[in-house]
Amino acid sequence: MTAEHAPRILYQVKQVELAVRGRLDAVVRPHGITVTQYTALTVLEQHPGMSSAQLARHAFVSAQAMEGIVRALGDAGLIARVRDTDNRRRMTISLTPAGVALLAACRSDVDRIEAEAFAGLSASERVRLGTWLQDARRALEESH
């Protein structure tokens, strides 16, 4: 197949995203959360103390959608919102022990999905792929 007839890289990335989303849904649904809620929890695991607006940007949803996600996760006891001591108008969001436990319960299944998806890549190729994907995301953000 020639390059001009090969599927676009953007199309291939979207196919991978949809396949991963389906597999993640099967893993997180029994825990009572959605893939989008799982994404928000993993972002908070890496960046505790974010505002709702920051979390929305990192989780790739609108601020309005994040309001519902934060409400649901808070109602489920998976996150806690506290007033920022430096800026009393700002609320920060962090995982609760239940949120940490839920992520731990999902970790081996998520690790398996990732291992299956990228089994054909060496460790250094996985690092390189991660770098390329981050570079692509950054380039799109900067050009927007």
TrEMBL record:
InterPro entries: HTH_MarR-typ (IPR000835), MarR/SlyA-like (IPR039422), WH-like_DNA-bd_sf (IPR036388), WH_DNA-bd_sf (IPR036390). Gene3D superfamilies: Winged helix-like DNA-binding domain superfamily/Winged helix DNA-binding domain (1.10.10.10). Pfam families: MarR. Residues 6-138 form the HTH marR-type domain. It comes from the Bacteria. This is HTH marR-type domain-containing protein. It comes from Microbacterium yannicii.
